[in-house]
Amino acid sequence: MRLSTYFLPTLKETPNDAQIVSHRLMLRSGMIAQECAGIYHWLPLGLRVLQKVEEIVRQSMNEAGFLEVLMPTLQPAELWEESGRYDAYGKEMLRITDRHDRRLLYGPTAEEAITDIVRRFMKSYKDLPRVLYQIQWKFRDEIRPRFGVMRGREFLMKDAYSFDLDAESARETYRRVMHTYMVTFKRLGLKAIPVRADTGPIGGDLSHEFHVFASTGESDIYYDKAFDALDLKGDENDLNQLMNLYAMADTMHDPKNCPVPQEQLNHTKGIEIGHIFYSGTKYSDSMKATVMGEMGKQIPLESGCYGIGVSRLVGALIEAHHDDYGIIWPESVAPFKIGLINLKKGDSLSDETCEKIYHTLLSQGKEVLYDDRDESIGVKFSTMDLIGIPTQIIVGPRGLKDGNVEIKNRRTGEKILCTLDNLYQRI
RNA sequence: CGGGGCGUGGCGCAGUCUGGUAGCGUGCCUGGUUUGGGUCCAGGAGGCCGGAGGUUCGAAUCCUCUCGCCCCGACCA
Predict the structure, then answer these.
(1) Do both A312 and A346 map to the same domain?
(2) Closest nucleotide C1' to the C-alpha of A17
(3) Whether residue A261 sits in one domain with residue A144
(4) Domain for residue A329, yes or no?
């Protein structure tokens, strides 16, 4: 992509509305623009990141054998009356009436919708177990939206729902999802800790939240310091270690009965990026979702619900990866992998060299953002640093005189000179 | 919902107390200049001061109502 023809409305100054670093940087780097409180436009650069995150989540789900569906954002009120949550959910639910006075709602979650599908089409124990998921926009009319996409009213969520024949199998599925989450977060470049949590209005008796440590997090968590030393690889072994580690949401933490000694316990702020529940037969009971069992008896489905906040993850990633100059994207979610800077547009050697590098990288399938604008050097450097492209290739007459270009690592700031011939092996 | 703050060119702000027809920085456009960290100089476009009503000869400024946004708290699968 050529920056001269891209749409990247960067801001030099921080908009007054933004308080936390991820929100500021998302606005300044032209990733998002606010439409109204808690509702945002995703501009080209931001959308690329959002889609990367979404794709990593999707692939991890698919690899685990979970099946993607896409349900409507609007749901009929009757479905929620059936589960008893239409009244219970309160003002957070955005209720809508259509021209025929039919009562609809913009889905804040989709347990009812998915349970309705499953009860209609899954009739036999042979159809189980199954995990269905979607990545769809949700709306919750939060009392106070804040922190940009971290606590928006409209947000993109991956929500999965599992259906098993019995509790034992359901708990095994819960564990599989947990493992899938560890893989997902690892791939995203985040160190996430599962903490025991309240089940809240979703119901059930087993629940974990996944948190990324950040001073700007909204949740208080207590955990065993041993977690800090773990080098997570996203495998089965990690899962066992994590399951045995003490980590609690503040509502679950009881200082009097905590098995971890005080000096071994950390208290910190976390951003909740995922939440999983074993909900038992809560929905299958109220909505009469059963399958025929082996013995010819109707058996209510055992279910679980598993969320990942996809749009929130974009904010959380920035909270975890930034410096004074801007964002530092992990490779896996970077909107572009390589930023190519032409320091002297109009200099024929610089122009030609950049064009050649640009086309070579494109032909290698690399995602490259070429700053071919007629701007000053400082502007180009700061733009590239601000938007956080992991690797920068800097091309200018001074280096080219000796046949060199420069490769800069955004994270470390390290710059190395290399010849044009060597360039492609070194990035 | 309780408490607090803010709405003035795209963005960041001053002007409001003490009423007299809007200013600075940045961004944008033009021309020149500069070229390894947000160059420098000159010229220019752009604002019914969130909205409505009122007071006044005259309102960004005073009064009333209203809308929006932000922060703290409560709330939050």
Answers:
(1) no
(2) B70
(3) yes
(4) no
A211, A147: one domain: yes
Identify whether residues A236 and A352 lie together within a single domain.
no
**Using the CB atom, is residue A200 less than 7 Å from strand B?**
yes
Q: Which two tokens stand for residue A130?
A: 């199954």
Q: What is the 3-state secondary structure (H, E, C) of A126-178?
A: HHCCEEEEEEEEEECCCCCCECHHHECCEEEEEEEEEEECCHHHHHHHHHHHH
Reported as half-sphere exposure (CB side, CA atoms, 13 A), residue A260 has a value of 19
Tens-of-pLDDT digits for all 427 residues of chain A? 999 999 999 999 998 889 899 999 999 999 999 999 999 999 999 999 999 999 999 999 999 999 999 999 999 999 999 999 998 888 899 999 999 999 999 999 999 999 999 999 999 999 999 999 999 999 999 988 999 999 999 999 999 999 999 999 999 999 999 999 999 999 999 999 999 887 665 555 689 999 999 888 889 899 999 999 888 887 888 888 888 889 988 888 888 888 899 899 999 999 999 999 999 999 999 999 999 999 999 999 999 999 999 999 999 999 999 999 999 999 999 999 999 999 999 999 999 999 999 999 999 999 999 999 999 999 999 999 999 999 999 999 999 999 999 999 999 999 999 999 999 999 8
For chain A residues 306-345, those near strand B by a CB cutoff of 7 A are: 307, 309, 325, 343-344
Q: Which domain holds residue A377?
A: 336-426
Residue–nucleotide distance: A63 CA to B45 C1' (Å) = 57
Residues A177, A123 within the same domain: yes
**Number of domain units in chain A:** 2
Nucleotide nearest to A91 (CA to C1'): B75
A60 and A118 together in one domain: yes
Domain boundary among A323, A355, A389: A323
d(CA A68, CA A131): 9
* Dihedral angle sign, alpha carbons of residues A58, A239, A108, A19: negative
Nucleotide nearest to A34 (CA to C1'): B69
Q: What is the CATH number of the domain that holds A189?
A: 3.30.930.10
Q: Output the domain CATH number for residue A388.
A: 3.40.50.800
